[in-house]
Specification:
This protein has a single domain, classed as Beta Barrel (Barwin-like endoglucanases). The chain has five helices and eleven strands. This is Cerato-platanin. It comes from Lentithecium fluviatile CBS 122367.
Length: 245
């Protein structure tokens, strides 16, 4: 085979790898969090992937398939080792039913994933402008790094809100502006980062394994119910509330 053909084959193989597809052992996760500060009150928290790799500035949408069923998920949190997905998404893929209809218990199940263009997850973002919602006080490191990446999806499709935590219990439900040429802090109508109690934007979790819908509360060390994979897939992780507060 000629050298040029070898190079073309290698590039073709690399592009297929970059596209991202394969098998993961998916496990259910019943408590919303986001290591990059995405606000759960402004997305569909029943369609989130909590995977081991770092959250990317462009590759934030993935499909997961099992037994002829497929869901699309936002990859906006990083796990300590397991391929966790929202309990409702896992339950639907496994049984064909929402976790609120026919909840089941279980562990890691081999499912097929494929990375998608971020636009494929547009219906999971519930903001009026379709932009990914971030905590203005606690997402600057990630957002600014994405802004520095030419052509990144997040760098062109973010919106800051004056809400302190990813489960939307503190702050003000208001948009903020960001101009890095003026300041490295977002500008909001109210003072940035005030821990004012916020009750108008609740985040709901579907509890594992009974399917009960509950309001997300700031987690404590004695009441964590994050992931339910096999022991080899478990690892240390960081709760968004603990990371940002």
């Amino acid at each position: 085979m000629r050298p040029l053909q070898l190079v073309l084959l290698a590039l073709s193989a690399a592009s297929r790898v970059a596209a991202g597809s394969g098998t993961v052992w998916a496990t259910p996760h019943d408590s919303y969090s986001s290591s990059i500060g995405v606000l759960g009150c402004k997305i569909n928290t029943n369609r989130v992937a909590y995977w081991p790799s770092s959250v990317d500035c462009t590759n934030i949408c993935v499909s997961l398939s099992y037994d002829g069923r497929t869901v699309k998920l936002l990859r906006i949190d990083q796990s300590g080792g397991a391929h966790d997905v929202s309990y409702d998404a896992w339950n639907y893929l496994y049984t064909g039913y929402s976790a609120t209809e026919k909840p089941v218990a279980g562990g890691a199940i081999a499912m097929q994933y494929e990375d998608l263009d971020a636009s494929e997850c547009a219906d999971l973002i519930q903001t009026d402008d379709g932009k990914l919602p971030f905590s203005a006080a606690n997402s600057m490191n990630f957002v600014s790094s994405c802004m520095a990446q030419e052509g990144s999806w997040v760098g062109s499709n973010y919106m800051m809100y004056n809400i302190m935590d990813s489960i939307c219990t503190l702050g003000y439900d208001e948009k903020c502006t960001l101009d890095l040429s003026v300041s490295n802090q977002p500008k909001c109508p109210n003072t940035l980062g005030l821990p004012t109690k916020l009750t108008t934007q609740p985040v709901y979790n579907i509890r594992y394994p009974n399917g009960e819908v509950v309001t997300a509360d700031p987690p404590t060390h004695s009441s964590r119910t994050h992931n339910f994979g096999l022991s080899f897939a478990m690892g240390p992780r960081c709760d968004a509330y603990e990371l940002f507060i």
